[in-house]
Amino acid sequence: MPPEIDNFNFAIMKKRRAIFPGSFDPLTLGHYDIIKRGITLFDELIIAIGVNTDKKYMFPLEERKRFISEAFKDEPQITVLTYQGLTVDFCKKVNAGFILRGLRNPADFEFEKAIAHTNRKLSEIETVFLLTSSGKSYISSSIVRDVIRNGGDYSGLVPDSVRTK
């Protein structure tokens, strides 16, 4: 082993902790795809469920937490937490250096780019974008909610943990 590696203190390496924020109302296969791919990039991934008291959700917060926890019960590097307020403030609170975001289309990119620039202006947080896998880019929580509200078959849009609701 080269001496520079022999003398390197691996214990002081900073863990790469990211948050993946969203309302997850409900968790979709698009979210699932980004999370599964995101855990290969980071040592820890916090699924951060944002709580907005002005917003009406289809699923209660505890149920949304359960959907995510059950879907990733075998992934020890994933934690599910809730937060209110600015995402960058939550990142500081949990010592996360990165925000993970998924992009489905060019409109998502433009919207997310503006948020990422604002977050960098407010803090040192980096945003990492992943494109959704082909075949999942059309899936959004709002589409899934509409299918559920109208009695449609949403089984191909969500993980098993959501289908057992």
From TrEMBL:
It is found in: Cytoplasm. Residues 19-146 form the Cytidyltransferase-like domain. One of its GO terms (cellular component) is cytoplasm. It catalyses: (R)-4'-phosphopantetheine + ATP + H(+) = 3'-dephospho-CoA + diphosphate. Its EC number is 2.7.7.3. Its cofactor is Mg(2+). One of its GO terms (biological process) is coenzyme A biosynthetic process. Substrate binds at S23, K55, T87, R101. Keywords: ATP-binding, Coenzyme A biosynthesis, Cytoplasm, Magnesium, Nucleotide-binding, Nucleotidyltransferase, Transferase. ATP binds at S23, F24, H31, G102, L103, R104, E112, K136, S137, Y138, I139, S140, S141, S142. SUPFAM superfamilies: Nucleotidylyl transferase. CDD domains: PPAT. InterPro entries: Cyt_trans-like, PPAT, Rossmann-like_a/b/a_fold. The record marks H31 as: Transition state stabilizer. Belongs to the bacterial CoaD family. Homohexamer. NCBIfam families: coaD_prev_kdtB, cyt_tran_rel. This is Phosphopantetheine adenylyltransferase. It comes from Arenibacter troitsensis. The gene is coaD.
